[in-house]
From TrEMBL, chains A, B:
Keyword Oxidoreductase: yes
Record has Phosphoprotein as a keyword: no
Keywords assigned by UniProt, alphabetized: FAD, Flavoprotein, Oxidoreductase
Organism: Pedococcus ginsenosidimutans
Matches recorded under Gene3D superfamilies: 3.30.465.10, 3.30.70.2740, Vanillyl-alcohol Oxidase, Chain A, domain 4 (1.10.45.10)
PANTHER family: GLYCOLATE OXIDASE SUBUNIT GLCD (PTHR42934)
Record's protein name: FAD-linked oxidase C-terminal domain-containing protein
Cofactor(s) required for function per UniProt: FAD
The FAD-binding PCMH-type domain, residue ranges: 37-215
InterPro entries linked to this entry: FAD-bd_oxidored_4_C, FAD-bd_PCMH, FAD-bd_PCMH-like_sf, FAD-bd_PCMH_sub2, FAD-linked_Oxase-like_C, FAD-linked_OxidoTrans_Type4, Oxid_FAD_bind_N, Vanillyl_alc_oxidase_C-sub2
Pfam families linked: FAD-oxidase_C, FAD_binding_4
């Protein structure tokens, strides 16, 4: 469809000011946090209400125009990458906290609400929103829902999907649905699970009901320095094996520590081959006891220095190194890939050795930062794009790390999502039958494949392409139209 | 299809001994725990392996014969009610614990494994399987997955869906799929949420990977007697409002207490209008402190007697009254309906008053037993079937209670499922659009509507009946064949 005609129709639906077609302004939206992919959208709409979103999606459905929803644009897998012939629906303009229901421990928010803002709003009542991506100061709840975002404290508290109890969804055909609510269970299919983490491929979320978590009475944090990742990994296994569930256990290896020091001078112990940050929260009496137990496990597995945060300032300093690690890598390498993979926790030592071997053999440096308790790795693969062949080699090592994760029964993404970036890796993890089953759901919601097309799935198929499975033909298939998105 | 021909084909696939067609033996399977509905299946197959199940389902798909999977048959909503022209696939014969992976806190089990057996098998290692339906001595994990079963301790530990991380599924077209695994997250749609609680309408689960929970260091239990449910309800609100999350808070009203006393002589305090059982578990130091806090809240809200279990025997006695409450009602009434509904916890006092009013106006006695912390009501509606009109009046009151739950933002079932029994209530809770959205998923997995047809959904539609939504036609629709199941 002609862009001018489309823009004019959208202006009639949502008002002139909400529709952007100026090329310079459109470029603001050409990428998300994964800047290596850039596409300028045909039109941008700044959504103000659910009715706006529904009207825009209905228009897209009628004209078979693809659309992509975008929150704060902090995603690391290109999940909010625009479509060149499509509409980018900006949701960060819907940012009201609609309700804080303290008695039922729920909040209802628009998707553009910033993650940390919600916790700030509920802290005076003694509650907070538990999932805490490192980007929580800027990322939005809607984006967290799309990617099923995790964070350092998800070991104890669970991922976004464990904290969402209801959604308002505009389906790809433009209908407004309520899925779930405040009550803990509902009959019928529990589609919340399928929707959280569906990366915008099943519609646009316009309101989110989340669980609020009681602020812990006490929090204690330690930083333990080890000779290497083997010893640190053994300490993690010992802590978890003893039945302790820390609020967080984070590990950084020597190269990641070097980068963090260069960037934010976090003052981690010198000579550490690995550090662990372990945080325990809960009732004060319990925290003290468990904390001593954790210290014991660290000593027993070779920690040569253990620092205990004396106050909030020191605790913040421990975390500063960890939370700035991704960006800090820029200090020691001109370019890098932030990888994201998951392994069963018990496979940590073996996978870390294999990564070290991959790195040695290829000459590509890899810094490791990860949510050790969850087995969620974030290898940072370093390279210099100005040197011929380096980016290709880095890409190879990066892919080989994902293969390692799969071989050990893990996953190609823990919390960053598949998006544009990892769709090609999906067949390494899933069989054709597995992917077909996912496609059944995609086609059920989005028969025309207009909701964030080209993301998640490696080879977009026309819905109804395998009549043996779908038992029905897609009208486009009858018309002989090929997949265009 | 002719039953003899079907049976012969099935015998060729799974062996003679596994196929039952003898009328007398078939009658064993005519109902589940909801005995008011009875249907004798055409054929019963005793499944021994995943390959058996896949072969049977493929045969059913080829012949368009409906099938129903059944575990221990303890369900309370008629979810395993057979189809008169269909195959009942008995899964209780697949009852091996395939793996206990202590280091990753996971177990892999066949669906016929009894809930409590799994905990017994893992207790020596210090772990157990947390979801604990009252029927846990006899119900199977596969049935728990179908119904997303809860239990008294789900307030703190969550429902079945919070403890399942992987499934092996035979889809209604006979394909074997792995959904999820041991790792905590996977890319693509998270279909675990949609599958757990789908009541057998999306296929047959043949293996379940579950999370194991560390046994708590300490458990303390109190029984508090109140003048009435208002005071007990206020105590519940105060406890939860203070940020305490007990392992369980169960409430019984005067009539439920009377029934339990008549049946099992549990010796609850005399003159109680309501009792609360509150259980606190966790590290010993914490349990003691929180327990005192809970006692304080009970006293403050009018508890006139508080007993603290001195040992496991006394603790078991407290629970005996509660856990036998459903069956005990048979002592004070010849017939009764076990209702199951959910409300936001804050609506408890209002809904209880309304139930009392309904009961007074209709002359139908209602005993209340419930998971108070979750707002999960189990009203027991008493009647005498031999008295003309009583069962109809009881049915009316029972339905009116569900309406109350819906009006207060709750749900028509907390943990027993929709099954055969509540399909007709679904339109009171969901709009046509909501139900159509669920149907999209149903049709994606089961285009021929052969997997447990007639359950959950009020008016089974032919898949593809609304071309505006589904964008495709169902072959049966083209052939002019009506919905037959």
């Amino acid at each position: 469809m002609d862009t001018d005609v489309l823009a004019a129709r959208l202006r009639a639906l949502v008002g002139d000011a909400a529709v952007i077609t100026d090329r310079q302004r459109l470029r603001t939206y050409e990428c998300d946090g994964l800047a290596q992919y850039r596409v300028v959208p045909a039109v941008v709409v700044l959504a103000a209400t659910t009715a706006d979103v529904a009207a825009v999606v209905r228009e897209c459905a009628a004209q078979r125009v693809p659309f992509v929803a975008r929150g704060s644009g902090t995603g690391l897998s290109g999940g909010a990458l625009p479509h060149a012939d499509g509409v980018l629906v900006v949701m960060s303009t819907m940012r009201r906290i609609l309700e804080v229901d303290r008695d039922n421990q729920r909040a209802v928010v628009e998707p553009g609400v910033i993650n940390l803002q919600l916790s700030r709003a509920t802290l005076p009542d003694g509650y907070y929103y538990a999932p805490d991506p490192s980007s929580q100061q800027v990322c939005s709840i809607g984006g967290n829902v799309a990617e099923n975002s995790g964070g350092a404290h998800c070991l104890k508290y669970g991922f976004t999907s464990n904290h969402v109890t209801g959604l308002e969804l505009v389906t790809p055909t433009g209908e407004v649905e309520q899925i779930g609510g405040k009550a803990p269970d509902a009959p019928g299919y529990d589609l919340l699970g399928a929707l959280v983490g569906s990366e915008g491929t099943l519609g646009v979320v316009t309101s989110v009901t989340v669980r609020l978590t009681r602020s812990p009475a006490d929090v204690r944090t330690l930083l333990a320095a080890f000779p290497g990742t083997d010893q640190a990994g053994a300490a993690v296994s010992a802590i978890i094996g003893a039945g302790v569930i820390p609020a967080a256990i984070e590990m950084m290896d020597a190269l990641a520590i070097e980068a963090a020091e260069a960037a934010v001078q976090c003052g981690y112990p010198e000579g550490a081959g690995a550090v662990l940050i372990v945080e325990i929260d809960g009732p004060a009496s319990d925290v003290q006891k468990v904390f001593e137990e954790v210290e014991g496990h660290c000593h027993e597995h070779g920690a040569f220095e253990i620092r205990i945060a004396a106050d909030d300032a020191e605790r913040a300093l421990f975390w500063k190194g960890r939370k700035s690690a991704f960006a800090a890598v820029g200090r020691i390498s001109p370019d890098y890939i932030v990888q994201d993979g998951v392994i069963p926790r018990t496979a940590l030592p073996e996978v870390l050795s294999s990564i070290a071997r991959l790195s040695a053999e290829s000459g590509v440096r890899v810094a490791n930062v990860f949510h050790a308790g969850d087995g969620n790795l974030h290898p940072l693969v370093l390279f210099d794009d100005s040197v011929e062949g380096e980016s290709e080699r880095a890409e190879e090592v990066s892919g080989a790390i994902l293969d390692l994760c799969i071989q050990h029964g893990g996953s190609i993404t823990g919390e960053h999502g598949v998006g544009s970036d990892k769709a090609r890796y999906m067949p390494r993890m899933f069989t054709d039958d597995d992917l077909d089953t996912m496609q059944l759901v995609r086609c059920a919601f989005d028969p025309a494949s207009i909701s964030n097309p080209g993301k998640v799935f490696p080879t977009p198929r026309l819905c109804g392409e395998r009549p043996g499975r779908h038992q029905g033909a897609h009208p486009l298939a009858d018309a002989g139209v090929a997949e265009v998105f």
